[in-house]
Amino acid sequence: MNNMLKTNIAGREMKIEFGNIGKLSNVAMFMSYGDTVILTNVNASEKPRAGIDFFPLSVEYEERLYSVGKIPGGFIKREGRPSENSILAGRAVDRPLRPLFPSGYRNDVQVVCTVVSVEKDNAPEILATNAASMALCLSSIPFTTPVATVMVGLIDGNFILNPTSAERELSQMELTVCTTSERVMMIEAGGNEIPEEVMINAIKFGFESAQAIIKFQEEAVAKFGKVKMTPDYYKPDADFKAEVEAFAKVMVKEAMWITDKDARNAAMDIVNAKVAEEFNEKYADKLSDLKEIMYNMQKYVVRDMLLNHRRRPGGRDFDKVRQIDCEVNILPRTHGTGLFTRGLTQVLTVATLGSVGDFQILDGISGKDSKRYMHHYNFPAYSVGEVRPLRGPGRREIGHGALAERALVPLIPSEEDFPYTIRLVSEVLSSNGSTSQASVCGSTLALLDAGVPLKRPAAGIAMGLITSDDLTKEEVLTDIEGIEDFFGDMDFKVAGTTEGITSIQVDTKIAGLSFTIIENAINGARTARLLILDKINACLPAPRSEVSLHAPKTVTININPEKIRDVIGAGGKIINKIIAETGVKIDIKEDGSVFVSSPEHEGVDKAIKIIEGIVKEAKVGEIYLGKVIKIAAFGAFIEILPNKEGLCHISKLARERVNKVEDVVAVGDEILVKVTEVDNQGRINLSRKDALPEEIEEVKEVKEVKEVSDKE
Description:
This protein is of the alpha+beta class and 712 residues long. The chain is 33% helix and 29% strand. The strands form six sheets. Strands 8-7-9-10-21-20-18-19 form an eight-stranded antiparallel β-sheet, with helices on both faces. Strands 1-2-3-4-6-5 form a six-stranded mixed β-sheet.
């Protein structure tokens, strides 16, 4: 490599190398942290993309299984669609970078982070954002503000910077903080009910720790950075803009000040129709400018309303939550349902309980290979009153589902306490702000309705922000509506319980957040969360005492791990026979835990009885009621336990001499036998005569005496 620079972060080496790789990219580089390595390539088009009203940034996070020494599964044996972890990591890289590009920049930009080597102690997801920022800063692309990302753990009250794999297992939280040199750009957090004050201090610790990486990027740019290009930035035609504003400004303000959402939208439709009638023919070549001008006018009105008139579009106070409604037990055949409504946002969440064997298998580079609790989120077009083709979940849906899932992970009971796999599906029925946090609330209701013994109920809320251009005015909003999110500066989502925070996700559209904003948002979210939790508790104060009649009934027993093969049998013969006879589903773990599931109690009980019989050990001295299954000249083979038989020698069939086995027993007879020996090879020797009751022997002796007397 031609160019190389390194530093030390949390006791591990961070290094960049570039110059001899990817020579046709604007910048191509390896960035490593320990033995975790990201190959990052950044490129931009020479000219702006015509006819668009957005910045076309594409961020890709590519996982390569060779990075962890794995060959992909399946027939094709190569990486397929991105894993959920890959999609979430790509979103995490994109979100802090996008607001820092210059306004009006319309050139296509692509950032590709390819994970080529992974050391489990150094998470590639954290390194990727640092690598993307470094590559963009080194490139000729007009990106000039470095961002740095760190992970913060919490062990025994102490904050840990970039915790190792072992430390992450012990940590009470997993916090990702992305910052510039002045402000916080992004926060992602999952925690075990972390108090607000602790979370705020953890974010400050992350911000301060990230500054060393910022300085590392600045040093690299000073030594190796390319000259930045000066592209054409998009701006609407000044004269056209002035003419449109003169015609429509008053109408836009009047429409946007209407508090009812439907009435406001109808009024804006009328305004847009008048503007189109006035300008579409006269300025046909400037219609893309017209859309931008109208958007900016609406944005100005909403922000002025909030900042200078302290009035929200819907008329609420800044700290007020919209009306909350909670319902459960909505659908008759599902295992648990929760319908959560907050204003015009409404989410229906359905819980499904499966056997422990229904867990999800994860095929990726993360250390986790499966999970038994899943949350899936669907956002159809009808939720916003639009018509669009129905397709599979996109990056947004996957991200929102993962966020709601993270909020409840610390509260889900262990497999030992609740032997089920749990799947939640949140259907967004109506969207007007923060459907992901409504999904947290709907999920809590569905889990309680399904009889899942949650540690505590959880709820979530989204906080918003409006700032002046010079950042001298800042207003934090509780429970943001769609219009406040659309024209606002941040989406600060916080979920948790009465005891503390379980998840945070923060997106910002400006160049970062001050700690005043962060503290106000976190503390305001707690007040709103407690209000929502009161509504949830009023609807269903505790989990159902039993799972749904339609959910599988699961019983767990523990057996000697050495007996697992006896239950399974050669080629699965025994376990398949049990399943066929009882109609249950059986899952066995290496530690000897056996989970038996079925909608019918009778089948579960029967299967448990069979399994217990299989694993039960024959003990010397115990008497069993056995069944004769085979006769030989030297004795009878008797099944004393399921799939466990022993030999009763002909000399042990009766107290008197027996000439033929058939004189005493026949195949199918049930007789009492006593275990006299279990040899080193596990072979069982039985005795019928030692199991005969004493009274039978006494009757027999009397009979023999009488027979002798009669002969005499």
